[in-house]
Design goal:
- The protein has one domain: 2-Layer Sandwich (Ribosomal Protein L30, Chain: A), CATH 3.30.1390.
- The chain is α+β, with helices and mostly antiparallel strands.
- Helices cover about 30% and strands about 25% of the residues.
Amino acid sequence: MAKGKTVTVRQTGSPLRRPKDQRATLVGLGLNKMQRVRTLEDTPSVRGMIAKVSHLVTIVEEK
């Protein structure tokens, strides 16, 4: 991973009964099961994906 800033997100909501685009966004973030945690590069595209499913994820930490 690049030496830039990172953001760690945890999936807290279920993708069941959600629109396909929200499920696809979770998969794009590397999240598909409850309580799964991923550390991602802090880029505008990742921030946009997090904002789109903000009701399903929480930001654990930012570095």
